[in-house]
Amino acid sequence: MYHTWMRFFTPGPAHHRLGLVCLGVGLQHGTLPTVGPRTLDHHVAVVVSTGRGWFRTPDGHRTTVTAPALLWLTPGIPHHYAPDPDTGWDEAFVDFTGPTADTYTELGYIEPDRPVVALSDAAAPRATVGRIVRAARRGNPLLEVETSAAVHELLVTLRRARADTAPDGEQLLQALARDACKALTVADHAARHGMTPAELRTAVRRGAGCSPKDYLLGIRLGRAKELLATTELPVAAVARRVGYDDPAYFSRLFTRRAGLAPVRFREQQGRTVPGGWSNQVPDPDHPPTIERLHTT
Q1: Is pTM beyond 0.70 here?
Q2: What is the rounded distance in angstroms from the CA atom of residue 37 to the CA atom of residue 51?
Q3: Which residues are CB-neighbours of 55 under 8 A, at least 6 positions away?
Q4: Would the CA dihedral through 115, 120, 124, 127 be positive or negative?
Q5: Rounded to whole angstroms, what are the CA distances from 50 to 66, 87, 88?
């Protein structure tokens, strides 16, 4: 016995230019029928929140699926799976497609070579799927855009929910971020953490989806933009503050990544900040307002 609810969408050409569109969403639970063997022309994320079952890869290998888990169904790759007939399972699925999926794959958010992924918790992904379900109400004029945005959110949420996102990996990224503006090479950072450069590259790519060099560069340039926008420090001084002794090299790097020179960025974004720039992230539930400032 099983229960199924699903909706399917047909986004138009303009929606496809968003880069990622939702093609369908479904909620199912119970002893669902076997799926496949079949091959699709689009991606599907299947979130299994309770129960267990199996997944068979194209080479015939059968993997046990134990909730919470994620199944990646990727275009052109045959798949074959089912819940255990004794326990069944509770699943939510989202079909999606678009060229941006290739970028998410490159960054490690979608893993075609790892179709079964253990999750630490399915609650957050299920909540995101719930937003797609609510957007799927009949007659919603914002359907395609709302669901497109929610697919982006789902991919991020699934990345955070992966069981292999260990606390020590998060601590490593936080430590790298803390030391990002020091004049250290990638090899220096690796040595500080008792790792080889190769081990550091593997850990950062697993945790952040990019190389250590790109991870550190993003943090450095973000800090440089803050200094350019909120201080009158010369560009050379800004370069030194973010770890570059050669201001000319810093300017070339900034221009290549930001699309405009540091001086030009300051002309566009510069502003005086009384009391200095705050590093404290505002509480999104209670953001600062004029009224609050006047009453504190």
Answers
A1: yes
A2: 21
A3: 62, 63, 65, 71, 79, 80, 81, 115, 116
A4: positive
A5: 8, 9, 8
